[in-house]
Amino acid sequence: MKYTLIDHTADFGIRVSGSDLKDLFENTAYAMFDLIIDAELSKDGKEFDISVSGYDLPDLMFNWLRELLYLFAGKEMVIKKADIVSISENRLSARITYSDYDPGRHEIKNEIKAVTYHQLKVENKSDGWETIIIFDV
Amino acid sequence: MNIMSELKRIDDYRWEVPKTGAMHVPGRVYTSARMMKTLEKEDALRQVSNVATLPGIISASLAMPDIHWGYGFPIGGVAAFDWDNGVISPGGVGYDINCGVRLAVTSLEKKDLKPRLDELANALYQNVPSGIGSTGSIKLSIKDEKKVLEQGSRWAVRQGFGEDNDIENTEDNGCMENADPSEISGRALERGRKQLGTLGSGNHFIEVGYVEEIYDEETARRFGLYKDQVTLMIHSGSRGLGYQVCDDSLAKMTKHVRKLDFEIPDRQLSCAMIQSKEGQQYFNAMACAANYAWANRQVLMHLSRETFQRVFRIGPGSLGMNLVYDVCHNIAKKEEHVVEGKKRIVCVHRKGATRSFPPGHIALPERYRDTGQPILIPGDMGTASYVLSGTQKAMEETFGSTCHGAGRVLSRTAAKKASKGRALHRELQDMGVLVKWTGRSTLAEEMPEAYKDISQVVEVVHEAGISRKVAKLKPSVVIKG
Asked: Which CATH number does A3-136 carry?
């Protein structure tokens, strides 16, 4: 899994790549949770289906990540895996695998308050797709 | 083109970003030659000029000396928009709506603190919930939560978390009247339900310190401050509820702004005309989060007050913990200002900036009518915090605004690197500061070197005349989330 940290003075972000859109959106979900929490994929993971829409790809990425972040911050779901079932420029559906947040088992590494729209990019490069997202921490 | 080279020096403390391209007004930065260096690495000045492109902006896009790179709007930015023909932007307020500071004094003196320092630090750490996602002892029903959103500090005081005069010593009496809980999403309500009375994480703190130096005897006396007096400072905001309100509003506005007849240089600058349905919805939802933050700081102060009483084994009368003032530094306000000789109603966005109202302003409580508003500027956890007062010059130049704190110079990763192999808590102890913290990397990320020198920031606003130095506080105990 490839992602790199972008280091800004007040905040930080990630640069993530993927072979196609499905791969990109899955990798980005993984990267965000990798930043937030130390968690391994466990056998007792529960599954949950969601769909997200957006008016273009950056908006779709923004809404995808903020939906996942809400599931963590609001519903205390630690997301281990996100499988994109279908994706277009305006809509995606996904099956996510999660476990309930357990302070004894999960250590929070970074608090991400929000996904920002600042300088958000989703681009088709010669060797695949790339996205840049800045988080408010 | 490098924006640094376009900067024009006005005087020793003011620089202008000339009006170019799509900018409606110039930018104006309050800084010093010394502090300019910290600006060079950043895109923060570009952000000052981006804000100047938004419709209805008046006079100038302003930046305080603690400016640093933000998302969309810079942190340390001030922008006023015409109430009838201007915009309101969630990105101009920030995620932590009504993040702010309150300062209380006590009848205790520095010498009383020393023998109980450890006990006090431990007790505060135990009694005040802190850390990421921390939940409080107050669990609100949705019905009560809506009352918090409508009433702010008043709700907290009515529940017994404080005293009546705490309310008048809070900016806007701890309540924005336009709050409308029907504009708050179920998600925001859910996140806010369990977090009232919690400190949070990151740069939020509770600090017990003492008055180290007085610069203006008369004003200090009116603020109730004297040398060696023990003080309590609280820095916190609207917690998950505020983030969710910003998040919800930003998602709505990025869709909305596409229908308007202007281009924004960054989606994080998404906005709506203040008078539109979307603009009013955000303004009324933001007010709810602001009220939540005031209630939150009120409860935090109450928990601290109880802790002091227990540790020092004294009653509330002998402790004499009185609120000096409570300020917000992430907010948008409807205010009247005189622009080029004419009274105008404007929407002032202060993102990492503090209100600095002058003597005589009608919004100030009676006791501060002739001193100007108390302004609270926290520094990093090792150095000092400042108390300033508001000035007429701020009204004339900065829509009654000044700086809010030190401002970061090191990224969190850089701070962690710089702290490798060091025992920061011991270094702080050597500086006379006892620190308790929750998060694994909080201490490293918040180390003193990660911030600008607060005394330089304060020097700029004092010399530029947009606020005046009153007193300096030295920290003794710091509780971090």
From this structure: 3.55.10.10
Residue span of the structural domain in which B392 resides: 3-480
CA nearest A53 in B: which residue?
B251
> CA distances (Å), B477 to each of B289, B322, B415, B473, in order?
29, 19, 21, 12
Number of independent structural domains in chain B: 1
pLDDT of res. B41 = 66
More confident residue, B407 or B462: B462
Retrieve residue B259's tokens: 């229908």
pLDDT tens readout for residues B321-375: 999 999 999 999 999 999 999 999 999 999 999 999 999 999 999 999 999 999 9
> What rounded mean pLDDT belongs to chain A?
90
**Which residues of chain B have a CB within 8 Å of the CB of A118?**
70-72, 266-268
Question: Distance of alpha carbon B283 from its chain centroid, rounded?
Answer: 18
Interface mutation target, options A4, A9, A38, chain B, most CBs of B under 10 Å: A9
What's the whole-number mean pLDDT along residues B142-158?
Answer: 98
Report residue A49's pLDDT band, with 50, 70 and 90 as the boundaries: very high
CB-based burial, B427-461: b 16+ in 10 Å, e otherwise: ebeeeebbbbbbbeebbbbbbbebbbbbebbbbbb
Token duo for residue B62: 């302003």
- The amino acid at residue B339 is V
- Which residue's entry shows tokens 């227990």? B310
Instruction: Determine, for residues A74 and B244 on separate chains, whether the beta-carbon distance falls below 8 Å.
Output: yes
- B404 flagged as catalytic: yes
ipTM: 0.90
Residue B258: give its domain's CATH number. Answer: 3.90.1860.10
